[in-house]
Amino acid sequence: MSNLHSLTHFWPELILTITVLAAIISDLIYRREESFKVAWWVLGGLVLTLFAIQIGGSTVSDLFMGTIALDPFSEFFKVLVLISTIAVVLMSFNSNELKDYRMGEYYSVLAIMAIGLFLMASAIDVLMVYLALEVVSIMSFFLAGYLKKNPHSNEASLKYVIYGAFSSGIMLYGLSILFGLTGTTKFIGMQTAIANLGPDSNLALILSAVFILAGFGYKISAVPFHFWTPDVYEGSPTTITAYLSVAPKAAGFAMMIRFFNQVFGDSTALVSETWSTINGIPWPQLMGVLAAVTMTVGNMVAIQQDSVKRMLAYSSIAHAGYMMMALPLMSEAGVYGIMIYLLMYLFMNLGAFFVVIYVQGKFGGEDFDNFDGLGWKMPFVGVVMTLFMFSLTGLPPTAGFIGKFYLFAAVIKAGTQYYWLAIVGALNSVVSLYYYIRVVKHMFLKGERSESVEMPASSLVTILLLAMALPTFILGWYFAPVVTWISESLVIFQGM
Amino acid sequence: MDNLNSYLFVSAVLFSLGLFGVITRRNGVAVLMGVELILNAANVNFLAFARFGGMNMAGHVYALFVIVLAAAEAAVALAIIINIFNNFKTINVDDVSELRQ
Predict the structure, then answer these.
(1) Which of A143, A390, B26, B41 is 20 to 30 Å from A93 by CA-CA measure?
(2) By percentage, how much of chain A surpasses pLDDT 70?
(3) Chain B residue whose CA is closest to A306
């Protein structure tokens, strides 16, 4: 589609851009103590964007001369990004850590990050892939270090910027080799070009694939590119940790699915299971091993943590591992499983982090000890947190169970050569039960039972926790509409 | 110096130097310089492929975008390093480790 014509289908991004401008200008007008009001502008823009996506309908086309795809697949991820951004903006009102800072830039940058995530979910040109990845990365460096006076936050942003810049640099080098091999920057053109390459370009192709994998792996924090995750997640403001653990991960998976299906799959990708184009290297097995290592490392280290925030950071690595199980399948069921899991993961993980934010504000820490007796003192928060923990483990009847069910079903359906992966995944879920239940133990079995019962002082916190807990619970047994919506969203732009 | 291979060789050397710099340097600014070398190695690749591969302007446009993004990234990274210096009085990345390992 030509550039001018594309603009008529680009409303969500355009509205977000205007939102960012409005937020920056309004930030200049507000005084320091009322700078949080910028959030209302951002919220308004995000809600408008949500409507714009709904009105947009489900055309399948390419925009801006084949650099951006417009399809239900990207719309699903855009909705995911918007839900998490709205929830994080609302939760930021109640964050104790952010109280001492001017908040205008914080909200504006969150909105910019949403634009970057939109582009990540819909990029079909390597230039756009790199551009979107960098927009998201640079904004995350900024947000991770938002607590200027807090050394932990500084350290988090330094580690993030070094790992982030390094991995995206490596990825760019890989992309440049791929560009040289194929002579095009469009995913679909690359696919045909790679299919026509002779065997003597195999080495260069493998090299570039490994380099590109480093960039994607960093974004979804897969082992062995995960070293930044725990430190960054622990040092960042907890609202940002919650956001980083959900939205960029979802967009990263979207980008990875698109890239590997379209560039390294054959023309029947999503139907066949072949990665036929790179001969000599067993790609599916390699990705399977990466997935198994990722979840095992995440779970094994999560057990040893004393801080709930850091435990959740490692557990988010493990969850990335579960989702990566479905990547080597290259089947529609696999992508379907990843999408369902991401939606369920959004509610339960954001909810768990919101409880951590609340506990941190109330008791001044995020260690397991700070949760002692919480279930008796504040039954509402205790019960909600228990629900999130059960759901993250994958116990029925919670959303996490349904997510894991579809994911494992896809892996098992793919054939006997993947059974070992499903077994490793199941064993890992059992391991994760230990540290998730530990939170519940601290809330209900440790500390003294208080006689009085408290609710969160702010009704916004109550509403937000409910907004995360209800889907986590309801989607555990009534998931038909959501699953139908996702299966309708499973339309990936495959070229005109 | 008028064939593709010599340019690719230069870019591979640049890339390796950048990689080496990132891994061995402990000074935050020097690590960033290593990253810049990696980005420039990719740029050399893009331009060389565009020039010798008989491709259209895509490679040139790509290089321009990378230059702009590298500048943006460097701006944010340097701001973060200034902030680190204010709080830690050092920019040695090994000394900046208060978070649990």
Answers:
(1) A390
(2) 96
(3) B100
B73 in A contact zone (CB under 8 Å): yes
Question: Smallest Cα–Cα separation from A216: which of A145, A273, A264, A275?
Answer: A264
Query: Which of A64, A65, A128, A154 would you mutate first to test chain B, the one with the most B CBs within 10 A?
Result: A154
Give the burial class of A14: count Cβ atoms within 10 A of its Cβ; 0-12 exposed, 13-18 middle, 19 or more buried.
Answer: middle
The closest of A386, A297, A282 to A328, measured between CA atoms, is: A282
Distance from CA of B62 to the nearest CA of A (A): 7
A–B interface: beta-carbon pairs under 8 A: 117
What tokens appear for A368 in the block? 């397991």
pLDDT digits (tens, 9 = 90+) for A387-435: 999 999 999 889 999 999 999 999 999 888 889 999 999 999 999 999 9
Lowest mean pLDDT: which of A255-259, A262-266, A459-463, B73-77?
A262-266
pTM for this predicted structure: 0.94
Q: How many angstroms separate the CA atoms of B9 and A312, rounded?
A: 44
Rounded Cα distance between A275 and A284, Å, is 8
Residue spans per domain, chain A? 282-496
Is A223 in contact with A289 (CB distance < 8 Å)?
Answer: no
CB contact under 8 A, A165 and B83: no
Alpha helix (H) residue ranges in A414-454: 419-444
Q: Do A177 and B84 touch (CB under 8 A)?
A: no
Contacts (Cβ under 8 Å, ≥6 apart) of A321: A222, A223, A291, A292, A293, A294, A295, A296, A297, A298, A425, A428
Chain A neighbors of B97, CB-CB under 8 A: 155
∠ CA A9-A76-A309 to the nearest 5 degrees? 130
Half-sphere exposure of B38 (CA within 13 A, CB side): 27
**Residue of B44, B92, B100, B101 for testing the chain A interface, max A β-carbons within 10 Å:** B100
Convert A257-296 to b/e letters by CB count within 10 Å (16 or more is b). bbbbbbbbbbeebbeebebbbeeeeebbeebbebbbbbbb
Contacts with A145 from chain B: Cβ below 8 Å = 80, 83
CB contact under 8 A, B84 and A158: yes
Which CATH number fits the domain B4-88, given the four candidates 1.10.490.10, 1.10.287.3510, 1.10.10.10, 3.30.540.10?
A: 1.10.287.3510
Contact at CB, A165 and B77, closer than 8 angstroms? yes
Q: Where are the domains of chain B?
A: 4-88
**pLDDT digit string, tens, across residues A287-322:** 899 999 999 999 999 999 999 999 999 999 999 999
* Amino acid at site A133: L
Name which of B31, B40, B62, B81 to mutate to probe chain A: the one with the most chain A Cβ atoms within 10 A of its Cβ: B62
Question: Which structure tokens are listed for B98?
Answer: 């208060």
- For chain A, give the mean pLDDT: 90
> Span A12-36, mean pLDDT?
93
DSSP A320-344: HHHHHTTTTT-BHHHHHHHHHHHHH
